[in-house]
Amino acid sequence: MKNVLRLLTFSAVVALFALPAFAQTTTTPAATTPAAQQPNSVCIDLYNKWRENRNGDAATQKTAYEAGKQYLSQCSTDEYVRYVQTWVGKYEKALRDIEFAKTLTDKRYTEAFNLGRQMLREDPDSLPVLFQLSNAGLANLSAGSAAVESLNTDAANYARRALQLIESGRTVDAWTPFANREDAIGWLNYTLGLLSIKNAPKDAINHFIKAAQSNFSAKNDPAIYYYLASAYQTAEYKPQADEYQAACAGKDLTDECKAKLNNLNLVVDRIIDAYARAIAFAGNNPKKADWMNQLKGFYKFRNNDSEAGLDALIAGIQTKPLLLPSMQTPSAVPAPASGGTTTPSSATPAASNNPPASNAVTTTTTKTTTATPSKPPQR
């Protein structure tokens, strides 16, 4: 009959964590003294001490563990070593799992990542560990100035790997700390967006869009759409606006400049759509006024310096699908003529054709230091 190892949590964490029972893979011998070959009295005593305490409470199991470790170091040729070794291995793994969970609860993220790396060396594709480390990465990022920057790269890699496994069909019995598969996909994409927005804003755009399209618990959080707008500004608007200003502002509207302006307008339309959603979901968010100022600047640029229709846009934005680049038709920019210029159009650009100056746009790197990311799911 198989014995069951039930590792109990220590008193400090008993209210927080409940570990399942661990069934031993082999049946331990019932005899107190092996019959085939008599070991010395020390080994007999250690073996019996381990065997008598291995299924007790936390204190007695600790006694069994200490006896088992001594037994393994002093009686390595004994035929019962493998029974003790199996139990000791499971005890150490369960202790590590408890400590891993406690480091997460205590927000000791550096320690949590160190333990998590050990666990992933044993099982590189463990979704539960990847989930917890990804979530810890988001929590670490949410800590603001107290965040440990060195953890960001690892957190992004863990979130990316978890997404790859889910998308390949991998599943788990429990999606903790997420609610379900869709919740995990949404949070992982949101995490990757936040971890990418500073150094890879184009990648961040894709992740924020996927998060917004996921059916996850923070889908209606305004921060998703604020960060999407910020990523658009950094990755697309600013370089295109700077290029347009240098080549076209205040000049005749050539076919090349018209194409550049049209493409810039497409980006502005996506920024407007994202900001409108952020404001529609903002409620009493303290950043709402800042976001509204940003939205007004872009909206007036696209509407002849007028705010007419803006309130209606915000009121109805939730009934419309998220505006995506795939829904728009960019213009092909014609190659300059051999002389370095293109033929001017007879039309003269209106004042609103000049995009807002770069210093009128609060960039992502500035804003992300003041905005608070959505809280990660609770463990």
Strand order of the largest sheet: 1-2
SSE class: mainly alpha
> Which regions contain 5 or more consecutive residues with pLDDT less than 50?
1-27, 30-38, 339-352, 358-371
Number of helices: 13
Helix content: 55-70%
User: What sequence of helices (H) and strands (E) makes up the elements?
Assistant: EEHHHHHHHHHHHHH
Shape: elongated
How much of the sequence is in beta strands?
A: under 5%
Task: Report, as a whole number of angstroms, the end-to-end distance.
Answer: 36 Å
What's the total count of β strands?
Answer: 2
Mean pLDDT equals: 81
Write down the Rg.
30 Å
Instruction: Please outline the major beta sheet.
Output: 2 strands, antiparallel
Describe what this molecule looks like in 3D.
- With 379 residues, the protein is mainly alpha-helical.
- Among the domains are: 109-219, no CATH class; 225-336 and 343-367, no CATH class.
- Helix content is 55%, strand content 1%.
- It is built from 13 helices and two strands.
- It has helices spanning 41-53, 58-74, 81-105, 109-122, 127-142, 151-167, 181-196, 201-213, 222-247, 255-280, 288-302, 310-316, 364-367, and strands at 4-5, 22-23.
- A two-stranded antiparallel sheet has the order 1-2.
- The radius of gyration is 30 Å and the shape is elongated.
- The two termini are 36 Å apart.
- Residues 1-27, 30-38, 339-352 and 358-371 have low confidence and may be disordered.
Give the arrangement of secondary structure elements.
Elements lengths: L3 E2 L16 E2 L17 H13 L4 H17 L6 H25 L3 H14 L4 H16 L8 H17 L13 H16 L4 H13 L8 H26 L7 H26 L7 H15 L7 H7 L47 H4 L12
Helix pairs in contact: 1-2, 2-3, 3-4, 4-5, 5-6, 5-7, 6-7, 7-8, 8-9, 9-10, 10-11
